[in-house]
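Consider a typical record:
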Amino acid sequence: MKFAIIAAGEGSRLSQEGAKLPKPLTLLAGTAMIERLIRIFVDNGADEIVVIVNEENVLTKNFLEELSDKIEVPFTLLVKSTPSSMHSFFELSKYLKGDKFCLTTVDTIFREKEFAKYISDFKKSESDGMMGVTDYIDDEKPLYVGTNEQMNITGFFDKNEGGCKYISGGIYCLGPKAIDVLTECMDKGVSRMRNFQRALVEHGLSLQAWPFTKIIDVDHAEDIFKAEQFIAEKN
């Protein structure tokens, strides 16, 4: 199973609030966020890891090039500026075809034991996808996830108009059919990851919601403190 990380954003909010390092290199308990993710992926049996960073983020590019010799699985670094996370995903998708994969954004912080169970469940699942969700809502623009009693995903919504319990956590485990939907979305000029997720439902793919107790996105300086506290908690 392959793993991929989108780290191509500018991290403008963090830099405006005084952060001196690019978002992927933001330290959490002394470890860069992106290095933490890569280590977790290796621990969960990654066959290959692919990362995309933007062309302006030279510090992260250099960091990953130096780190690559220490990564215990095949590692690919893409350096390309893209207009959105969905476009970044499309660039990564060329390396993800034909097998199950897990995709995350670089600033997604979760409990490692929960993530391990999530990956294990997806490997055994026959569904087309398993999305990480949470009922912990601390997001400026959450994407609400509709589910039925069996935790099958019925829709993705910008507003919680149907009593949705969960929001998307930015962790996506998907199978080969999802790449076909992504390609079609790109051909049609669809943008934004949330619209891609809607397209998955519209195309009839079987998607399950997998609830994490908490997922934190590091978008602001104050989120760094929250994330450090969170990962310091006992699982």
